[in-house]
Design goal:
By secondary structure, the chain is an alpha/beta fold. It is built from eleven helices and ten strands. The strands form two sheets. The protein has a five-stranded mixed β-sheet with strand order 3-2-1-4-5, sandwiched between helices. A five-stranded mixed β-sheet has the order 8-7-6-9-10, with helices on both faces. The radius of gyration is 20 Å and the shape is globular. The two termini are 27 Å apart. The structure holds 5'-O-[(R)-(carboxyoxy)(hydroxy)phosphoryl]adenosine and zinc ion (ZN). 5'-O-[(R)-(carboxyoxy)(hydroxy)phosphoryl]adenosine binds next to α5 and α6.
Length: 335
């Protein structure tokens, strides 16, 4: 079964053709990052406008590269939430129009379900149940994937998402947007033990995360150094901050692995492309004899191939949407 998938929830306009949920026939991503960089973050109105300008071309390219047409694919899938409402609407309208015109089934996909499903593409042997840490710009979720389409959220960030913390800290040290890759680069030159930043704990909840305390600690450190007239080393700051985030993520993941006796663990979302996170997770999983899976970087950040994968399993489970499918900016996962 070949699915044409569309993703436009934030600042990438993306389309892909995916066969049987696992085989990527094309994966086209038109990123708006250079435009939003000028403003230090995503400007929703500009994102919607750029999606409208680009979506037809991106979809055409995805079909062409896969050697398919609207007549030869079997369904059209689209991210309908969560995300920026104006941005989501562009993809939803495009998918509805194409599916209606071609008489194809329409499948609405949850963006985070897409991120998790990127692992099915990277690891063809991966099957539920498994545990997954979803770390993106908007979400930090520790999830038990009980079955295809069945998710139990064990824990989440009570404030900033991990990616959001990367972006905010990067901005505070003048590294620009998006912060994750910039911090990772700077951290390679810095000493992770230079500054002792706190790991956020949330009451007695073992699986919840908190990153706002860490973000404040980074800002306070910078202010204190400035007031003392001491020059800040941005590389050491980036490395120490990254170490604190990674430690928190690994620590909670390890508790969940222990508790659930998991033998497979997956990473998903933009922050999952971070090398320091990947190697710390690998070290922990190796130590516990757990198989770790993470998508290649292009499938970690926003793309439509992951939406095509999630849509395949959703469709097989009977999901099909009507022409009234709408964008849902704060769509919850698995509820
Ligand atoms: O999954 P994604 O592309 O979009 C959302 O659904 O949010 O994630 C984007 C987030 C941004 O916050 C970005 O800074 C972060 O992922 N990110 C990274 C890295 N690459 C992207 N964070 C840390 N290290 C990276 N290499
Ligand atoms: Zn995303």
């Amino acid at each position: 079964m070949k699915i044409l998938a569309i993703e436009s929830s934030c600042d990438e306009t993306a389309a892909a053709v995916v066969c049987d949920g696992r085989q990527v026939l094309s994966n086209i991503i038109s990123t708006q990052i250079p435009i939003h960089t000028l403003y230090g973050g995503v400007v929703p109105e500009i994102a919607s406008r750029k999606h409208i300008e680009r979506i037809n071309r991106v979809v055409k390219m995805a079909l062409k590269e896969a050697n398919e047409t609207l007549e030869t694919v079997d369904a059209v899938a689209v991210t309908y939430g969560p995300g920026l409402v104006g941005a989501l609407l562009v993809g939803v309208a495009q998918a509805k129009a194409m599916a209606y015109a071609a008489g194809l089934p329409l499948v609405g996909v949850h963006h985070i379900e897409g991120h998790i499903s990127a692992n099915y593409i990277t690891d063809p042997t991966l099957e539920p149940p498994f545990l997954c840490l979803v770390v993106s710009g908007g979400h930090t979720h520790l999830v038990r994937v009980a079955d295809y389409g069945k998710y139990e959220i064990l824990g989440r960030s009570v404030d900033d998402a991990a990616g959001e913390a990367f972006d905010k800290v990067a901005r505070s040290i003048g590294l620009g947007y998006p912060g994750g890759p910039k911090i990772e680069e700077a951290a390679k030159r810095g000493n992770p033990d230079a500054i002792d930043f706190p790991i956020g704990h949330v009451g007695d909840s073992p699986y919840d995360f908190s990153f706002s305390g860490l973000k404040s600690a980074v800002l306070n450190y910078q202010n204190a150094q400035r007031m003392k007239g001491i020059e800040i080393n941005p590389d050491d700051l980036a490395a120490s901050f990254q170490k604190a985030v990674v430690s928190a993520l690994v620590e909670k993941s390890e508790i969940a692995i222990e508790e659930f006796g998991a033998d497979r663990f997956a990473l998903a979302g933009g922050v999952a492309s971070n090398g320091a996170l990947r190697s710390a997770m690998k070290e922990m999983c190796d130590r516990r004899g757990v198989k770790l899976c993470f998508p290649e970087p292009v499938l970690c950040t926003d793309n439509a191939a992951m939406i095509g994968s999630a849509a395949y399993y959703a469709y097989k489970n009977g999901r099909q949407d009507g022409w009234d499918l709408n964008a849902v900016p704060n769509l919850p996962l698995g509820e």
